Amino acid sequence: MLTGRESLVRLIGKRRKILPDRQSFLLAPPESCKDDIRDGLSSSSSTNGAEICESSKKMDVVEMGRSDSSYVTCPVCGVSVQGSDHELNSHLDVCLTGGGTKRKLRQPTLFQFSFKSSVTKPKDQLDESNNNLKINDDVLLPKDEKVEGNAITKFPVIEDNNDAQCVSPLNSFAKLETREEVKVENLSGEDENPSGDDIIEEKYVDVTLSAPNVVAKHEVDRSTDDTSVAIFQTYIVGRKFGEEVDLKIGDTVSFARDQYNVKDPNAIKVLCTDSGCEKVVGYIPRELARYLSPLTEKNCLVFEVSISALPKRPLDIVPIQVVCQRMTGAGRVESNDHGSSDSVWEDILHVVECAKNFIPGQRKYQQNFLLLIQEVMRSHQHLFIDEEKLYIESFKSLSDDSQNLFVRLFTRKGPWFRMSNISYQEVTDSQQAVEGLCARGYMCSLESMNEPNGSDIKEVLDVLTVSELRDICSLSHPKKGIYSSRKQELISLLSASYDDGKCLSLPSMVLDRTGNCIRVSSTAESLLWRVQRLFFLNGEQDLNAFLMVDLGLVKYPTYTCIVHNQIFPSRADLLAYEEALEVAQIMDESLEEDDHVKVKSCIELSDARISSSREAPQSSTPPTMTFHSSFSDSYIYSKVVTLGISYLERERRYEDAIRLLKGLLDRIACGSRRGYWTLRLSVDLEHLGRLNESLSVAEEGLLDPWVRAGSKMALQRRILRLGKPPRRWKTPSFSDSINRTIKEVQVLGRPLNCDLGMKNRFYGEDGEQCGVEELALQYYANEGGGWHGVHTESGIWMTIFGLIMWDIIFADIPDVFHTRFQTSPLDFDTDNFYIARKSLIESHLHNIYEGMAEEILITSWESHIGTACRGVNWDRHSLSDLRAAVTCVGGPCLASLCRLLAQDYRSWSSGMPDLFLWRFSGDYKGEAKLVEVKGPRDRLSEQQRAWLLLLMDCGFNAEVCKVSPPAKSVQV
User: Fold this and answer.
1) Least enclosed by CB within 10 Å: which of 219, 246, 682, 964?
2) Is residue 822 within 8 Å of residue 894, measured between CB atoms?
3) If DSSP codes are grouped into helix, strand and coil, which group holds residue 255?
4) What does the H/E/C string look like for 904-916?
5) 362 torsion bin: left (phi>0), alpha (psi -120 to 50), beta (else)
6) How confident is the model at residue 190 (pLDDT cuts 50, 70, 90)?
């Protein structure tokens, strides 16, 4: 793979289905590439022929360029709305249904509204409460957490103790406005089972009970004595693990702890008495059982549970009503292990709130999507124009069927889907759902298009089966035998025939077989892709991240979100970033298709955009680089150009590569890639025979503070090689350090293969096949001195660093945590990480130096086991191995290693020696060794050599193990 390709792929994430400016980017000459930021929807400037469905075109809500004089200010949400009766009434329907007001507004109240022209009051002078989209009518931002300009000072409080912690993604948001009523007959589907044998073991996320995430309108119903009775609604799940019971509305059931459940120790089973014996009906939801389980054995509480409705299907969830009563007077009993019954009652009230958070399985996608939209519109509303806000808000006014169907199709590959194949358990009427989506411009129907264009037909061909494609081919090419069974070949044949005008009836033949097809509209795709990107701040995560949390497969760490500065200060910055991502995706696709013309266009376009960048050149003296710069268009364009340089070097076009490298070094003064760019520039100049210039570039590179680690060592070695007399007469000062001898051990092995370019394989001491690392481990365990060891490379050290420095990594630092799905702070790879936490880090490293590393490691392991953290691999390394590592390495060496990673994690997080070895000389004393293993034809990379020398400087015992076959005997 070309250098920089993997990094670019990670940056792009999941490819977009529609790139609005694909053709305009490729057709525009590089000289005219300026930062022309679009003012409308990103999809409105599309010139690639991608359709916007007819209903979407007709939507006044997304029309651009209308006169502001016809607008009025909505008294509910404060946005500008076109003053016509139809538009105003439609907006009010959306606003009131979606929870745009704190009051419950009735029809008489509407007559009291005062509609004022939006031009009479500047937007920046609107009432403070209108600066935020009021998505919920029950939860508003506190007065001390206002939106000032484009910067949100702090996320809303979600804890009782006023700590704004990013905890469980499902419970850390403000609650959504709910429907007027929940129809029991629409509740269907099996929810995650908290106690079945085939369930994946859940690793719990800390849930904030006081942060209501309401998905159904269940109010806490209490008797006249507010502290004696609480009534809440929940469900019986896991029916497939229960027994067959004939349930009736009003039947009484009971709770019982399932203490022997190996999958969930907090599981609570629901029992029903049938024919004199108790039968297990199912279980209560896992999230609720976690908090209710400790309370079921309290003598001061009585639970009365009854069936409130019956499901449509036998294994569907069953709605139940729970009445929790506190015994008073003589029956009141104090609980020794939990405090007074008053504290127990407080806990049960928390359980009541928790019960509201439960979402039936098939509705979770929908609710998570609404949460995603709500959070983005609250935190990033300055990045959307009023029409876009209104369009996005209108999603909440769609029916549940339409919302569920849209979310399902939005997350699928597509782009086109057969209506005949659409069937989801949570969607009761797919046809009606599609009609609602098309009416609001969220979907496009192939039947509704007057004349489907060529790109539409080519995309629809992908939904056909191979046999259907062959049938069409045989009809369109009757004289040509069609024998191919490859789908893409058949699609290419039909597309070419349609483009050449030889098969003009292709659209009708396709529709005859597919029936009606639908797709997400370009407007919806572009806007909601933006919303999703803003929520996760990367392209790799999507709604599946919620699902992974729901299933207990991923547990995110707890940290505080303190936001003073927005990542995208203005809409122009965001649109420029999106355009750069489009160019990056086109570059990746072009390399995949081996399209040299498009690759060249992307390289030249990116180079031109960097040249015209609005960023002023910065001083080359660090130390601080703004960590938000990774969200700038220049950062993405630099990655495209870097990949392009690797591509040009492969083509031996060194002059072009040199031009681009010089441009990057001149325009981007700060960045972790400057070392790589300087090294490649020196190498490419040498390829062209320009040795003096190559040497000068290497010498100047050593003065660059951004040239570090392996790149710095490579430049030093180049200077020593190229700087011999008569070019240079004076020996550099770093000569002795760079030429230090690294201890080397020779190990003989019986090779299995000696093919050039293949991974070396040997026979181990036990006669089994193994790699060079396993052979080296066997050597050190026996002949080498009884060492224990693991083949880990950087993995074990990144895990140790993450666990020992956990509290530092997730410390309360402003602007480094923006989402609930981060596994590290945004500045983790930058110099800012150490600078912003210097006092904390140095104090912590002092404790490690004094020998407290093992204690810190054990505490962190037990407190955070299973929680996702960048670099930490819970499965690969056992606690015993980690304890052996920190004990045998010792405090001083470990403190030096942690300081190095804290100062420059990006440069030093790779390239460490292959093996970590240890042996104990007593109960609490031991020694460690780090070994880089090389096969017969391998040699050390510059990064590996830099690591070995650095480890030696830190006091580590480091060496190279060279595995080679026995020398061939010479026959006379």
Assistant:
1) 246
2) no
3) strand
4) CHHHHCCCCCCEE
5) alpha
6) very low
Token digits for 327?
Answer: 């015994």
The tally of CA atoms less than 13 A away on the side-chain side of residue 659 is 10
235 strand-pairing partners: 319
CA dist., res. 645 & res. 287, Å (int): 52
Going from the C-alpha of 636 to that of each of 302, 387, 450, 484, 589, the distances in angstroms are: 61, 28, 39, 41, 16
pLDDT for res 472: 85
- 476 C-beta neighbours (distance < 10 Å), count: 19
Cis ω before 726 (30° cut-off from 0): yes
Residue 610 is predicted with a pLDDT of 93
pTM: 0.72
In angstroms, the CA 204 to CA 192 distance is: 14
User: CA-CA distance, 673 to 665, in Å (whole number)?
Assistant: 9
- Tokens 């469980």 label which residue? 168
Buried/exposed code over 666-701 (b: 16+ C-beta within 10 A; e: otherwise): ebbbbbbbbbbbbbbbbbbbbeeebeeebbbbbbeb
Report CA 242 to chain centroid distance, whole Å.
Answer: 37
What is the residue whose two structure tokens read 């959070």? 375
Q: Which residue has the tokens 């079945």?
A: 196
Question: Using one digit for the tens of pLDDT, what is the confidence trace for 814-857?
Answer: 999 999 999 999 999 999 999 999 999 999 999 999 999 999 99
State the residue for tokens 């070949």: 489
Tokens 């060079």 locate to 772
Counted residue by residue, the chain has a size of 972
More confident residue, 187 or 390: 390
Nearest to 31 by CA among 643, 604, 638: 604
For the chain, the farthest-separated pair of C-alpha atoms sits apart, in whole angstroms, at 112
| Closest to 530 measured CA to CA, from 364, 371, 372 | 372
Least confident of 290-299, 440-449, 759-768: 290-299
Evaluate whether 596 touches 648 at the Cβ level (below 8 Å): no
Contact between residue 821 and residue 902 where contact means Cβ atoms under 8 Å apart: no
pLDDT tens per residue, range 681-712? 999 999 999 999 999 999 999 999 999 999 99
Which two tokens mark 366?
């929908």
Q: How many CB atoms lie within 10 A of CB 758?
A: 8
What are the tens digits of pLDDT across the range 541-574? 999 898 888 777 899 999 999 999 899 999 999 9
User: Contact at 8 Å (CB) between 220 and 321?
Assistant: no
Q: Could you tell me if 889 and 928 are in contact, meaning their C-beta atoms sit under 8 angstroms apart?
A: yes
CA 30-31-32 angle, 5° bins: 90
Phi/psi of residue 627, each to 5°? -75, -15
Q: Residue 95: what pLDDT?
A: 61
296, two tokens: 């079921």
